[in-house]
Amino acid sequence: MSDTRAVVVDPEAPGRLVIRAVPGPVPDRGEAVVRVRALSLNRGEVRRSGMAAAGWRPGWDLAGEVERAAADGSGPRAGARVVGMLPEGAWAERLAVPTHALAELPDTVTLSQAATFPVAGLTALLALGKRGPLLGRRVLVTGATGGVGDFAVQLARLAGAHVTASARRADQAPALRALGAHEVVVGDAIPPSPKYDLVVESVGGRTLGTALGALARGGMCVTLGVSASAEVTFDAREFFIAGRTTLYGFYLFTELGSEPASVGLRRLADLVAAGQLTPHVSLERPWTEIARVAQDLMARRFPGKAVLTL
Known about the structure:
Layout: E1 4-9, E2 17-22, E3 31-40, H1 43-49, E4 61-68, E5 81-85, E6 94-98, E7 102-104, H2 111-114, H3 117-128, E8 138-141, H4 147-158, E9 162-167, H5 173-179, E10 183-186, E11 196-201, H6 205-211, E12 215-223, H7 236-241, E13 246-249, H8 252-255, H9 261-273, E14 281-286, H10 290-298, E15 305-309
Parallel strand pairs: 8-9, 8-11, 9-10, 11-12, 12-13, 14-15
Antiparallel strand pairs: 1-2, 3-4, 3-6, 3-15, 4-5, 5-7
Helix pairs in contact: 3-4, 3-9
């Protein structure tokens, strides 16, 4: 196919991210060619972009239209509006995407909304499922103003849990309560009481260390990010004295080995279409501003998700 354009790493450029011509997609039989209309940013891919070699293509989340359906007949038809994900390289005008990583969108879900689903939405959805049914359970979500946290608070409340959100600043509490949190704790330490059946933890450092001491008997802490620090110290006695507590290391692309991304993406899209889930896009800019938006994301200059449009 003819060339297309994509975001690539250029160590000499401001922000290290530029848009360049790259070879066009050559799909396998189980891949559809997607014309990308919107993409969203996550801290993980942006962080890696700061260290990657010249020419590396970042990007996980994408939404757009199917330009050519998969040759094997699987997945959405040509012309369908879709959300999808790739392990890298999703920030491009045209892509070959495996149909197991694509979901067709209901008419009422916008492409900008859909672009927020893949990493943040799927991470929240699958992490919350690790503890089993949440009806009547106590759930703590740390880093609750971030992309994953925003989804996790809403989904936990929807599942019938009593939801506590953790935030860095007191002024963030009203927004978290509006999101669905029953309670908000402020600061980088989690109080030892009350106890939680499930903690969805994305901060690391002192927050993770103290969250382990706030688990109820049989409770689980799902750790999936280290936005504050990767180094953690904790009181082992407080952790094990509760009994049968679990620390679960979560990495999305490993989790997707047991269920294709298309399944969870469609679930999220249906919840949004039904008015039960609301993606929060704090920033929407043309993709030509990728370098600046990526820097703003890492500097925490906005909550929730940033979406770039093509």
